[in-house]
Backbone:
């Protein structure tokens, strides 16, 4: 099958590739419930600003998140509300409870636990 795939599949594959990194998936799960700034994310997850910026850039380039300037701050949120269906499935499947929202605090606690165990 040498024919090019339909453009819709190409775009969907790019979105899935952008979501395929654990930190980027955590970012979009958090943004699903609370749009926020890069600084808030970096501080909450105790990550360098540059790391968060790099992952947000990937998500923005694939149309997963959008940025809105509010004064001196830039607030990030999901670009497409339909993504919540995918995220609901992915996040609830792995959540410790069926109704887990993966708030920023919960994501931060999971990341601290991961770092404490030395897991990747």
Residues:
């Amino acid at each position: 099958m040498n024919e090019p795939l339909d453009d819709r599949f190409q775009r969907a594959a790019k979105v899935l590739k952008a979501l395929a990194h654990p930190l980027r998936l955590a970012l979009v799960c958090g943004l699903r419930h609370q749009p926020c700034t890069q600084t808030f994310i970096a501080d909450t997850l105790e990550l360098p600003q540059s790391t968060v910026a790099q992952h947000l850039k990937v998500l923005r380039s694939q149309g997963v998140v959008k940025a809105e300037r509010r004064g001196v701050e830039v607030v990030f949120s999901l670009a497409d509300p339909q993504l919540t269906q995918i995220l609901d499935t992915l996040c609830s499947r792995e959540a410790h409870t069926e109704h887990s929202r993966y708030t920023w605090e919960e994501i931060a606690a999971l990341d601290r636990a991961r770092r404490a165990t030395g897991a990747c």
